[in-house]
Automatic annotation (TrEMBL):
Keywords: Cell membrane, Electron transport, FAD, Flavoprotein, Membrane, Oxidoreductase, Transport. It comes from Amycolatopsis albispora. The gene is sdhA. It comes from the Bacteria. GO terms for molecular function: electron transfer activity; flavin adenine dinucleotide binding; steroid dehydrogenase activity, acting on the CH-CH group of donors; succinate dehydrogenase (quinone) activity. This is succinate dehydrogenase.
Length: 643
């Protein structure tokens, strides 16, 4: 897939004009309403039960809609949102340190390297305070300072303390809040939950999303489910790299199948590298472990000043250490944004200053913080994170520095949506990490939880109201040809996978794909590498369909079959991701093209040619690129500086 066509520009027509601070209120007021009696007549499918999906399902059901909710885990509590550690941003200004809605808006647009929509980001900043109020009302046990007020800490890319947290398990606590709200609606009969059920395709009838085809992961039964609107809250696609901080089950199947039915995919090359992960330890690993960015509040990052210095860290005196982030970016120090911290670590290791096995690590040292605050204070803030690190590495971070290295974490790309979170397929909405988000080319730490809950609790409900109030919805029969055709295609695909009976495992293909993507579309990309990967990927995909081996049958619990379907989609998705990275001949945020960097090695944007959202339309072997040109009336693009 080296070629593509240039299509007509695309535009977001739902965001109102006028002062940015009034746009969200204006959109809510102009959105059509559905009266409570009529809401009971509508069915809405929500796929996913993480922060975005769980909050969306609970809120829509609370409004009176009949919600049909799906998750491939055995419980909504197992959604990958549970793994988020550090915190959630909100412009409450409890610290009286200069924070405001506008500053959160500014930091987010700048942190995303000026590749996000101003209207969306300002709305996110406005809603942020309501999210905290909602979660406190649900009983989320946020940390509190001595006087009883909610405590906050700093995250990368900002100079204020706006991140609310619950030790190192913020995602888990927020997810439990959404889950209890969802459970209440399940008990009331307003939510019909299908656990251990995976969406395998989208049903489109008369141009509208009207349902999904799903497979019961226990029995293997393939069934269709119909509704008046479909919401995808299925997370990101970071596992295309095989090794990532994502849960092993996280995948791109839902958004990729929707893409092939007509939903545009936006900015797939925008992936985030998290700088604070435990380095890989060998070929046996199937995933990587994240250490929260919150650790950079008190931990100092350094490497030896002498390349190849293999002395233990306690034998390297202070005068021979390079606290390189503090040296390079004195205004932000260890709290620079993730893309900048990640590239700096890679540069240090590439230059021979790395530590640990293979020189693929830098130190994150808490000695100063323990000396200043005392070990009990550090334990109170980060105890569970320190325990997790020790269990994995057999090293005590209270006594020796942690070793960290960047890894694939979050994906800023996803399904293209308008201001109402609606895709290019009417009736299909995407929320949370499944859409191309509000983060541009790089996400600031603690903003994922903010966006997921903003979408689910506050943005999606009025958007769904407006859509359902504005159309007529004839009942779709289960034997409608449009339904039967999609269901037949799903069954055929499953049967085709099982029929290969080759000699290679699914994981072997996934690992090879991941290495290809990491080497050529990871922390740094260049034209030669991207073209090399684009040459190899079609051959790998062909080999997959010729040699993959899946034991067992489709009429039972078969995890190899589950994985095979997801990897088959990754093998297609990865090609579009490489093409998107090749076409975008600039560096911005997490997308770092080596040909486009400043003399200091920083990302060099090309605003004249690439200030747009790349929205890709599926068109077989020759995808179509539609550009949504970005306009900046409030935060004018400049070269990002954190010095």
């Amino acid at each position: 897939m080296h070629e593509y066509e240039l299509g007509e520009p695309i535009a977001d027509t739902k965001a109102p004009d006028g002062p940015i601070e009034r746009r969200w209120d204006e959109r809510k007021f102009t959105a059509k309403l559905v009266n409570p009696a009529n809401r009971r007549k509508h069915r809405v499918i929500v796929v996913g039960t993480g922060l975005a999906g769980g909050s969306a399902g609970a809120t829509l059901a609370e409004q009176g809609y009949h919600v049909i909710q799906f998750c491939f885990q055995d419980s909504p509590r197992r959604a990958h949102s549970v793994a988020a550690q550090g915190g959630i941003n909100a412009a409450k200004n409890y610290r009286n340190d200069g924070d405001s809605v506008y500053r959160l808006f500014y930091d987010t647009v700048k942190g995303g390297d000026f590749r996000s929509r101003e209207s969306n980001v300002y709305r996110l900043a406005q809603i942020s305070g309501q999210i905290i109020d909602q979660c406190v009302a649900q009983g989320v046990p946020f940390a509190r300072e001595y006087g009883g007020l909610l405590d906050t800490r700093s995250f990368g890319g900002v100079q204020v303390q706006r991140t609310f947290y619950a030790r190192g398990q913020t995602g888990q606590q927020l997810l439990l809040g959404a889950y209890q709200a969802l459970s209440r609606q399940i008990d009331a009969g307003n939510v019909e939950l299908h656990a251990r059920t995976e969406m395998l395709d989208l049903i489109v009838v008369d141009g509208k999303a009207r349902g999904i085809v799903a497979r019961d992961l226990i029995t293997g039964e393939v069934t269709s489910h119909l509704a008046d609107a479909v919401v995808l809250a299925t997370g990101g696609y970071g596992n295309v790299f095989y090794l990532s901080t994502n849960a092993k089950g996280s995948n791109a199947t839902a958004i990729w199948r929707a893409h092939k039915r007509g939903a545009y995919l936006a900015n797939p090359c925008f992936t985030q590298i998290h700088p604070t992960c435990i380095p890989r330890s060998g070929e046996h690993q199937s995933k990587l472990t994240l250490m929260s960015e919150s650790l950079r509040n008190d931990g100092r990052i350094w490497v030896p000043q002498r390349a190849g210095d293999d002395r233990p860290p306690d034998r390297i005196p202070e005068s021979e250490r390079d606290y390189y982030l503090e040296r390079l970016y004195p205004s932000f120090g260890n709290l620079v944004p993730r893309d900048i911290a990640s590239r700096a670590a890679k540069n240090m290791c590439d230059a021979g200053f790395g530590v640990g096995p293979g020189g693929l690590g830098v130190y994150l040292d808490f000695a100063d913080a323990i000396a200043r605050l005392g070990r009990p204070a550090i334990e109170a803030k980060y105890g569970n994170l320190f325990d997790m690190y020790e269990r994995i590495t057999a090293e005590n971070p209270y006594e020796v520095p942690m070793r960290i290295y960047p890894a694939i974490h979050y994906t800023m790309g996803g399904l293209w949506v308008d201001y109402d979170l609606q895709t290019t397929i009417p009736g299909l909405f995407a929320v949370g990490e499944a859409n191309f988000s509000d983060h541009g080319a790089n996400r600031l730490g603690a903003s994922a939880l903010m966006q997921g809950l903003a979408d689910g609790y506050f943005v999606l409900p009025p958007a769904i109201n407006d859509y359902l109030a504005g159309g007529s919805f004839e009942t779709v029969a289960p034997d409608d040809p449009a339904v039967s055709e999609v269901e037949s295609e799903v069954r055929s695909r499953v049967e085709r996978l099982l029929a290969v009976r080759g000699d290679r495992t699914v994981d072997s293909f996934h690992r090879e794909l991941g290495m290809l993507m990491w080497d050529h579309c990871g922390m740094a990309r260049n034209e030669t590498g991207l073209r090399k990967a684009l040459e190899r990927l079609p051959a790998l995909r062909e080999e997959f369909w010729r040699r993959v081996r899946i034991p067992g049958t489709g009429a039972e619990l078969n995890q190899e079959l589950e994985k095979a379907g997801r990897v088959a989609d990754f093998l297609e998705f990865g090609e579009l991701m490489l093409l998107d990275a090749l076409v975008r001949e600039e560096s911005c945020g997490g997308h770092f093209r080596e040909e486009h960097q400043t003399p200091d090695g920083e990302a060099q944007r090309d605003d004249e040619r690439f200030s747009y959202v790349a929205a890709w339309q599926y068109h077989g072997e020759k995808p179509v690129l539609h550009k949504e040109f970005l306009e900046f009336d409030y935060v004018h693009p400049t070269q990002r500086s954190y010095t």
